[in-house]
Amino acid sequence: MKFGSVDNPSDIDFTLPADHPDTLKVLQNKPSERCNVFVGCAKWNKADLKGFYPRGTKDELEYYSRQFNSIELNATFYRIFPPEQFAKWYDKTPDNFKFFPKLNQEISHWKRLSDAITPIVDNYLYSAVNLKEKLGCVFLQMHNNFAPKDFNRVVNFAESWPKEIPLAMEFRHTNWYNDKAVAEDLYQLLEANNISNIIVDSAGRRDIMHMRLTNSRAFVRYVGANHQSDYARLDDWVERLKLWKANGIEEIDFFVHQNIEKESPLLSAYLIKQLNAELGTHLKIPNDDSDRQQKLL
Description:
Strand order of the largest sheet: 3-2-1-9-8-7
Distance between the termini: 26 Å
């Protein structure tokens, strides 16, 4: 993920902003009886995750899904796969695994949520539901230049989305957040329709760190800078997630990206170790029996 990349990450103030005042109100200020936590990478292919797969691995997804409990399925952004492909992915993965597929670019970037997207969305979901109970939260990522002038399209999309399928939305144009009236209208729309407000933590885009949850799911897309600061940033996230868990978060979906993706499994493994220690989760640590884990100690 090149979004928000910088040449000198050591010059960036990575301090997590304070929560939006309404975030804890959404969480209802009471401890979670149960909090489901999903951590994964953005891709599973061997070309990107160099060094992650043992020599002789025949099926990358089958191996990946036994190391992690989830995947941010970015491949669906580039093409709409047929139902049979989703069914194959379902069959290859264990019972507790979840897929978090991105909506296709024709919906978000080409048609830009216009009325013409309805049959495309229907076709996409017709295929995606073949993941059955392994379908996590579908997510929409809008183009950087999609601005609040088209807010009515967002309203129509949010209100027409099938409520039985969880949805998260990500907005990258800074005017969604620096105009308080626009931001409040957006947050209220997402809350009213039980849509998660994606938080993107990227070095070069600190302006969109809104820290505003709109339901009991925290959907975080974390973009490392391939820099030592990546680990301290994750430590800060663990503390924030711990706070949210104490105040009622019911699900955490945390996906780790890197500009050089081969480091994503290492960074994810570090995060999982911290979550297990601080939040009391019992997530498998990827490749825990390999020498690479020693680098995290």
